[in-house]
């Protein structure tokens, strides 16, 4: 009996080690390939013709959709930043999603809102009741929809989608801080490949502790909190490098909910955002792919490896835990809903590479990691662990993890170098190291809980979703799964 | 087990070594960047007055000084160039020619890396260089789509009207350049390309070229093209995209002579998109006849009830609301009725109200 | 001496415009954002303002509207030339509604801008 147990534990130990090594190695590949793409993009910088896109009367208009629930702290800044975007033709549709604070009053006062009879341009189902529609009288192209909340960002966005009049729709979170050229950068692929581009996104970075003014980041700075610093590295790896690489293989699965641009007709065609999804941003991308590619129509999702948007990330473990649990739950829903795409050659690199990768490393990753850790503990308790071998093996895994996070920071320093102070750079490098010990393991636990929640009840319970009152730190409605590793 | 241990030790050592190497590289890069930026800023500050002096072209000493200035000067000039027009742009372009920057870019047009070709093209465009039109034109069929777009933009900015025809042809090649990019390039070339656009409307290299030519002639407000545009708008055998562009262009020209044709298009069964374009064009023309057509189409009870028909009707309402006091009066007659008609009228009216009126209404 | 205020967040453009207008014999002050520009205008009471539209802190349109609404009659009537990359028809309209005296689109001709500045000032204000 004891021998059998020993065999099981040993096998598990080795299995987990192999898994971690394969995962880290594939991340290293993603980082290296991503770094090359970023370098190419930087070579083009200044010659991409953004000024021509801006000057052109032929540039397609963009409707920026902003869902806001109790956002009195930041809504005016966000609107100012969106309305100040360097883009030739845009409108903003703000949805006051059942706010109980002064969100609407502030906007009404600043923009002289007046009630209007709405002109609906699509009839995507909306569950909340639309109470009224207003328009700015200050000359700003702003429409505001007031509706009752069903505590779902997707419902607010669908209401806004029905009012949008331009051919492109940009979904933005009310607490996103946009770069001034964000729309131009993500709109360019639509102009240069109008027949096949359906969605575009860009790099999203952590905003905590940055110096901001009226919704624009004046100077990014690194937070003093290690939890935030670690997430800063995580975001860099996942956006700058992971998504860049996936998009290069035309297998991009996620365009962040914090900032993404889509063809309106395509979004309307798939019925807007899935109201039941906990990861409605990734859900939308996969749905568009399933719908269009399934019908043999072109469907390119482009990732622009340049910073477009800054978002605040959780500053405490408990908020982070809820966020990551939700993301993992959402991923499980998504993979279940689109299970026929997994491994399906009809969907190209998405079906053969990206979805299986997400299934094995993102969704099931935490199972392997948590079980593996437990087996090591058991082995140690049973005295079956040779301390010498164990530490050597752990050393390899740790060294590989360190190399990955250091290369991420190195790429940042050699390309964008947005953090100017040496202190921030050092902190970033240290945070990358810390991610491997402690953070990664706790993160696996959160994700495992999300997966279990998804398995326990396929219908998500929404009452767990509202914002927790963290006005500065909780991106609960931000609901991108930003930092899902390497995505 | 010892073999495994050895392998683990070696792997750890290699990985750690690589990490340390990266760390060293990051440290060095960070320090070097700081110094480099400080140095460049100082040099720029030094050179800026020289560049300004050279702009007016009357300062011989400044001209001579510029030819031997450090490379940072090129960046300075290249930053400024895209923002400028006219004589000063030509003067700065001359500086780049004399410093050999233009010649180097011309050589780079055949570089291996796509970004080098693209950057070189962009530079030639910014420098208003018309000596390399042929080379840039050749890049319109480059294997890299990004380079093709860069070449089209550069041809537009360089300003040689001879580029118009190759640009229009690039719309329909197998390695093509999209209409959004070609369109802006042709707009950058300005009125000298109007004859080429009129020719493309009459005897088009492709339907895409014809539609784009119609769009651009409309944006230019080229009254000489009114006749051919009318023919394209009316002709039912024309491709739909061409008809729609012609209809929109007629609206931009604003000539009431187009009203009868646009009225026919609006009443045609078929593409809602085309009919919506006709409604908008009639609103832009805004003469009495056009408004009457719109009002009739809006209230026409025989119209279908599909979503396309509803959209056409709503666009008629928008066009009326946007066509001044008279249009709004016509619309106001329907605004009090219940049902979809009244709602469309109210939506159009409330969305078009000018700020002052809107405030008055809120107060009332 | 005629005093011109240039407000543009692109230092290259601001300094070029300042240089060109300075050569016409005017005193030129430069500010890099809308808020600082408005403050400078209130303090310096310039004879003319060249104003970018898209700037941090406060955009040119807001600055222009604030100037027009100023209690000081000289400031309320100061000629304002918008110098901006916003080139759409509706942008130009909005610029004039906000109270701009003139509207120049980037890419611009510095010589033409100088002529427009001269024309917006009282005759003989710029010696040239």
From TrEMBL, chain A:
InterPro entries: Nucleotide-diphossugar_trans (IPR029044). GO terms for molecular function: glycosyltransferase activity. PANTHER family: POLY-BETA-1,6-N-ACETYL-D-GLUCOSAMINE SYNTHASE. It comes from Geodermatophilus obscurus. The chain crosses the membrane at residues 12-35, 347-368, 388-411. Pfam families: Glyco_tranf_2_3 (PF13641). The keyword Transmembrane applies. Belongs to the glycosyltransferase 2 family. This is Glycosyltransferase, catalytic subunit of cellulose synthase and poly-beta-1,6-N-acetylglucosamine synthase. Keywords: Glycosyltransferase, Membrane, Transferase, Transmembrane, Transmembrane helix. Coiled coil: none annotated.
Automatic annotation (TrEMBL), chain B:
GO terms for molecular function: oxidoreductase activity. SUPFAM superfamilies: ARM repeat (SSF48371). It comes from the Bacteria. InterPro entries: ARM-like (IPR011989), ARM-type_fold (IPR016024), PBS_lyase_HEAT (IPR004155). This is HEAT repeat.
UniProtKB/TrEMBL annotation, chain C:
The keyword Secreted does not apply. Residues 3-121 form the Response regulatory domain. InterPro entries: Bact_response_regulator (IPR050595), CheY-like_superfamily (IPR011006), Sig_transdc_resp-reg_receiver (IPR001789). One of its GO terms (biological process) is phosphorelay signal transduction system. It comes from the Bacteria. Pfam families: Response_reg. One of its GO terms (molecular function) is DNA binding. The modification 4-aspartylphosphate is found at residue 52. Keywords: DNA-binding, Phosphoprotein, Transcription, Transcription regulation, Two-component regulatory system. This is Two-component system, OmpR family, phosphate regulon response regulator PhoB. It comes from Geodermatophilus obscurus.
